[in-house]
Specification:
Elements: H1 2-7, E1 10-14, H2 20-29, E2 35-39, H3 51-67, E3 72-75, H4 78-92, E4 97-99, H5 100-111, E5 116-121, H6 123-128, H7 130-138, E6 143-148, H8 152-157, H9 164-179, E7 184-188, H10 196-202, E8 207-210, H11 211-225, E9 238-242, H12 249-257, E10 264-266
Parallel strand pairs: 1-2, 1-3, 2-9, 3-4, 5-6, 5-7, 7-8, 9-10
Bound molecules: D-glutamic acid (DGL).
Length: 270
Amino acid sequence: MENIGRQRPIGVFDSGIGGLTNVRALMERLPMENIIYFGDTARVPYGTKSKATIENFSMQIVDFLLEHDVKAMVIACNTIAAVAGQKIRQKTGNMPVLDVISAGAKAALATTRNNKIGIIATNTTVNSNAYARAIHRDNPDTLVRTQAAPLLVPLVEEGWLEHEVTRLTVCEYLKPLLADGIDTLVLGCTHFPLLKPLIGREAHNVALVDSAITTAEETARVLAQEGLLNTDNNNPDYRFYVSDIPLKFRTIGEHFLGRTMEQIEMVSLG
Ligand code: DGL
């Protein structure tokens, strides 16, 4: 019985395909886990939508994952974590629910030396103040500077990871944060880890926190603590569900995932 519980998949979800950066980190950190991914590609972006709409969409996704008997959930989308995290946890009860904001905030605090942390994220995440709240819960004296960086989302989806337009956009967004002397920058959006090399060059004395990696670490820790780690599975099952399969979906998705995607299925929610 216990073994069956451990074999159940981890449910990972996002507003679109950016959350595949989290799946990639989970596959590397926890290679024996089965994973079900849901990306709401028909309704992305969430980063410009209201809290009520995001909560409503998120509840539909959570229902879908519960129907698939997941043992834990990972909220891969910063925007969902920022405005709907609490509601999701109320619904899932005792099930472990990990999210990119809690993990990213912890990692940023562990990284900073001068106690000045910058965050780049979508408009909705920035407006929610969720990162600052999570950081100040552990250390109220930390200076947290947030910057909405919405233009980076379509630039990443276009694959312009090293393009001059992207570089100039990054510079513009980073200017106020660098002027405030941050030594740590949280990549607070699913898409931004793909810009790590470029951002690293433009902010060369700043440590970058990739929330996908820290969330995978936290997931491993919590699953072990709850006795839910899958330790007997050399052939893990990965399933990808999306609400739409737009043009270029596979190409962009495989960019985020870093490998080919088998088993993509379309489902409509709501
Ligand atoms: N997944 C979103 C995030 O991490 C970015 C894309 C969107 O706006 O939906 O905030």
